From TrEMBL:
Protein name: GAF domain-containing protein
The GAF domain, residue ranges: 118-216
Pfam families: GAF
Origin species: Aeromicrobium fastidiosum
Amino acid sequence: MGRPLDLAMPPGADPATLSRYLNRAHDDFVATGSTDPAVRRLVQESWRRSIEGGLDPEQAMAAIRLDDAALAAIRDQHPLAAGMPVIRRLLVDSAADSGLLVAVSDAAGQLLWVEGDAGLRSMAERMHFVAGADWSEASAGTNAPGTALALDRPVQIFGAEHLARQVTPWSCSAAPIHDPDTGAILGVLDLTGGDEVVTPQSLTLVRATVAAVEAELRIERLSPAPRASVATTGWQAPSLEVLGGHGATLRHGSTTTRLSLRHSEIVLLLSESADGMTTAELGVALSDDEQAQVTVRAELSRLRAVLGPIELASRPYRLKNVVDTDVAGVRADLAAGHLRRAVARYRGPVLPASTAPAVERIRDELHMHVRSQLLVSSDADALLSFADTPHGRDDFEVWERVLSILPPTSPRHAQVRAHVSVLDEELGV
């Protein structure tokens, strides 16, 4: 069972009456610091976080941190770009017809897309509700995208529940979007407008769209992008996925095959070898005990029956087909400077159940390559996306790096600081 929804406007509530009450409660809080106990606890806690972070309710404006070039670069790399067609189809088109806005942020609260009704977009620009602006609580105070990000749960904010005075005429419903493989927060989907966006139906629509986006991301990863030659030849390279799973998944055309751990190791090693490998070399690569060559040959014979149209040549053993691997994809993203895309693609270590020496080397080298790029990065979104995963949860240096670049006013700063303290104590750093 999930957490019960904390609705901003319970069924049967009168919007005008609720709005008058919230405006009085907002004014009292700004003037005295005291909160009416009838104000939702979620809102009270967010107001206090914002004030303690130094936010001025009367003057605060969301900071615009990304210029057009930086915004375009992030959009190009961000994993949620693959979900935008779904969001436009399920939410943006109807929102535009209804006079509403749809926004998508990254995991740090920066708005990457703001779409919908043109007239409303023009009005929203006056409060910096635009692509490139930072709508985390630290920058904009209590708001649905920022508070959903801070709490990692769906959130509705109605009118004067917003802390910043310029935002109080607006209402919004938002929900986090998670990586379907790692569970890390990728960003937030938000619906903004008037009273109608804080109904139970609006939040249900937002959550349903988030579920569709997460499903689309999973499907997109199960359907690797065609190579450049596909457009002219109609041929698509086989793909091998070895990240985060106990065995590899091999795809060729419409065929999907789950390989045993030993076959996964062999196919990965052959895909990494430009010149192929002899039976003796495979034996050393697969085991510290240098498996008997007859055992390796037997495995290769069984593997041929599994590979289907993928040809396994011998003397030395090699794959005659080009095989795209997710390992190579991560390396290519890192080489191109696409850190966010690399982190999204890196769903976990290479074949974590394998004890084959050569596989362990590939695993360690790739993991350290990703970490080294993160540790010199100032991209909070990429760092948090890695840190929130099982393979990043206990990485003290990564969490320290996150803490060093997050502003003290960030809604996640306290949680990150607490986690660093726990790791410090556990590891005796």
